[in-house]
Specification:
CATH class: Mainly Beta
Distance between the termini: 19 Å
Number of strands: 4
Shape: globular
CATH architecture: Roll
Number of helices: 3
Strand order of the largest sheet: 1-4-3-2
Helix content: 10-25%
Structural class: alpha+beta
Radius of gyration: 12 Å
Largest sheet: 4 strands, antiparallel
Number of domains: 1
Length: 93
């Protein structure tokens, strides 16, 4: 899973703790870790869901202004049959 540097910085700062992904084959699992440019991330949970179920609260936890902002971003992402909500935490340097 590739994450933009600005998103990684927001996760590290504690501003973001949820990531949404749409894909054909998941690349992370609950309890795993992800190596990033800023350090490792813990994958706390991975939940299958529908993009239609994303709430304003979820969108804000993911760094979006609201659901409309989230949907605008989602329209730019590649298609996939699986949509997941991934809860993450920065582990440290």
């Amino acid at each position: 899973m590739l994450l933009k540097l600005s998103l990684l910085e927001d996760i590290k700062a504690g501003k973001v703790d949820v990531i949404f992904r749409r894909w054909n084959r998941p690349t992370v699992k609950s309890g795993g870790t992800l190596k990033t440019k800023l350090g490792p991330l813990s994958i706390l949970s991975v939940t299958d869901m529908s993009a239609d179920d994303v709430t304003d609260a979820d969108a804000k936890r993911a760094g979006f202004k609201d659901v409309a902002d989230f949907r605008k971003w989602l329209d730019t992402m590649k298609e996939g049959s699986i949509f997941q909500r991934i809860q993450v935490a920065f582990e440290g340097e």
